[in-house]
Amino acid sequence: xxxxxxxxxVAAVVAYAVYVYNxxxxxRQMTEEAWSGIDVQLKRRTxxxxxxxxxxxxxxxHERETLGEVTRLRTAAQAVPLPKAHxxxxxxxxWPSPRPIRT
Length: 103
Fold this sequence. Notes:
The protein is mainly alpha-helical. The protein has a domain at 35-72. It is 76% helix and 0% strand. The chain has 1 helix and no strands. The chain has one helix at residues 2-79. The longest helix is centred in the middle third of the chain and has 78 residues, at 2-79. The termini are far apart. 0% of the residues are buried. The model has no long low-confidence stretch (mean pLDDT 86).
């Protein structure tokens, strides 16, 4: 009778050891899978950086062209002579005040 009890205890310990071992192996696999997912996301991010750099270069080129065009047009607009009647409005100091100045 005691032999059966000892065998049952040994079998329970072995079964528990197998359960713990399998659980540890599955946790290790899940951890490796999680790190693999992180590696994939980092690789994707790294692969997207050149695309982002090219996009920014293209936008900077567009901005440079736009700024050059605006500067050219502003210079051309300033080169146009105004009639004498409009010359008094050229400086902000000569604009009439909306309210009288109180002293």
